[in-house]
Specification:
Order of helices and strands: EEEEEEEEEEEHEE
Strand order of the largest sheet: 5-11-10-9-8
Number of strands: 13
Helix content: under 10%
Largest sheet: 5 strands, antiparallel
Strand content: 35-45%
Number of helices: 1
Structural class: mainly beta
Distance between the termini: 107 Å
Shape: rod-shaped
């Protein structure tokens, strides 16, 4: 009997790839030797990619003042790797439930939320969350919202990684509207002044 144990290098074989090992063995019987070969073919299977960038949590804090225009865009870059060597360099990033969108230069996928829009570059993994200033400013309480990034090698289901957003809402101070000035003219007669 014999057994064959593939080494870890075969894990790098992707879909449609294979590796061949050829061994020669000899059987000795009496005064004769019989030599044969055995061929082992290792067929590659798909390995899912894995995110190498960490999951992220981002917090936006509203204040009692007017924050519109001061709430900034959050940016970062996704990274991933694949045990299948041929798939590295061909990974595609996205957002679960996202759609094609080139409205924001440098990005081609987006997904909207009540509090802003998340953009991703499907090739480089760059992402940006563009907050909706007015929506965050309108929050009176704390709200959490999550998206799922995706990465795929084109052979299996997308792998997910969550990004969490924490919005600290607060009751904003009221603001007074413009009060129009009024002019009253006294005359030598008996005048009645009426407010308007």
């Amino acid at each position: 009997t014999y057994s064959y144990v593939a080494d870890s290098s075969t894990n790098s074989l992707g879909v449609g790839e294979s590796a061949v090992d050829i061994f020669t063995y000899t059987v000795h019987s009496g005064n004769s030797d019989f030599t044969q070969t055995i061929t082992v073919t290792v067929v590659g299977q798909n390995d899912d990619p894995v995110f190498t960038s960490s999951g992220t949590s981002i917090t936006y804090t509203d204040t009692q003042n007017n924050d519109i225009g001061s709430i900034t865009t959050a940016t970062g870059t996704l990274t991933a790797s694949d045990a299948d060597t041929s798939d590295n360099g061909h990974l595609t990033f996205g957002i679960s439930g996202g759609s094609a969108d080139i409205s924001n230069p440098g990005f081609d996928i987006s997904s909207s939320s009540p509090y802003g829009t998340l953009y991703v570059n499907s090739q480089t993994g760059a992402y940006a969350f563009v907050p909706d200033d007015a929506a965050i400013e309108a929050l009176k309480t704390t709200v959490d919202y999550s998206f799922n990034f995706t990465v795929t090698d084109g052979h299996g289901s997308p792998v997910l990684q969550e990004i969490d957003f924490h919005f600290d809402g607060v009751n904003d101070k009221p603001t007074l509207g413009v009060i129009a000035s009024a002019t009253y003219n006294d005359t030598s007669a008996s005048d009645d002044f009426v407010t308007t």
